[in-house]
């Protein structure tokens, strides 16, 4: 089954892995590789079913928690993704793939909160994502927008400046800066 997965023959991989899993229902590898193949073809509900089975059999299997986080993240269930990645990081806090997944989940969760109008909570998650990795422009841009939404223009400008350092050629940043300065009554600086 794993070989057919590697060859991208997912239908045959699923058939073989299902037979193996049915004959070995408490096998972590059988359930894990079946879940991985289901996830590859977009069958998230089935993938999660088998990942939960793996976790019930082998609760400290990092790959199962991380893959569960990936499944949740792909379906935009960011709170659940964060929970899965946090559990994985308790198992191995240095795993680069899991750290990357966790960081992406933080950013996407913060963006979801931002668009739900939950600015204070979004700000909290954007700040946490910056603590994890301060070299990404997106959290700074959204922090700037969130602070502007709640009327904290000086904080907004501060994060916009940090974004401009990370992405000096982004043409939208000077426009945002000018708009922010103009709304604060600083028309001369906005024209500049």
Residue share in helix: over 70%
Average per-residue pLDDT, rounded, comes to 92
Structure annotation, total helices:
12
Distance between the termini: 63 Å
The structural class is: mainly alpha
Largest sheet: none
The strand count comes to 0
- The rounded Rg comes to 22 Å
Ranges where pLDDT stays below 50 over 5 or more residues in a row are none
Sum up the overall morphology in one term.
elongated
Range of strand content:
under 5%
Secondary-structure element string:
HHHHHHHHHHHH
What attributes characterize this protein structure?
mainly alpha; elongated; 0% strand; 192 residues
Task: Give a topology summary.
Layout: H1 2-6, H2 10-23, H3 28-40, H4 44-57, H5 62-74, H6 78-91, H7 96-115, H8 119-132, H9 137-149, H10 153-166, H11 172-183, H12 187-191
Could you walk me through the main structural features you see in this protein, from its secondary elements to its overall organization?
The structure is a single chain. The protein is an all-alpha fold and 192 residues long. Helices cover 79% and strands 0% of the residues. The chain has helices spanning 2-6, 10-23, 28-40, 44-57, 62-74, 78-91, 96-115, 119-132, 137-149, 153-166, 172-183, 187-191. Helix 10 runs antiparallel to helix 11. The radius of gyration is 22 Å and the shape is elongated. The mean pLDDT is 92.
């Amino acid at each position: 089954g794993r070989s057919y997965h590697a060859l991208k023959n997912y239908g045959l991989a699923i058939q073989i892995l299902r037979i193996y899993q049915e004959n070995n229902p408490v096998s972590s590898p059988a359930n894990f590789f079946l879940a991985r193949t289901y996830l590859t073809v977009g069958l998230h509900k089935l993938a999660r079913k088998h990942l939960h089975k793996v976790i019930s059999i082998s609760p400290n299997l990092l790959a199962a928690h991380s893959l569960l986080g990936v499944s949740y993240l792909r379906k935009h269930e960011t709170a659940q993704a964060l929970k899965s990645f946090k559990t994985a990081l308790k198992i191995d806090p240095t795993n680069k793939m899991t750290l990357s997944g966790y960081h992406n989940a933080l950013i996407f969760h913060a963006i979801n909160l931002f668009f739900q109008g939950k600015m204070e909570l979004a700000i909290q998650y954007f700040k946490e994502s910056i603590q994890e990795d301060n070299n990404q422009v997106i959290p700074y841009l959204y922090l700037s927008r969130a602070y502007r939404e709640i009327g904290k223009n000086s904080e907004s400008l501060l994060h916009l400046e940090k974004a401009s350092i990370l992405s000096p050629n982004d043409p939208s940043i000077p426009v945002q800066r000018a708009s922010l300065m103009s709304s604060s009554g600083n028309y001369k600086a906005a024209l500049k």
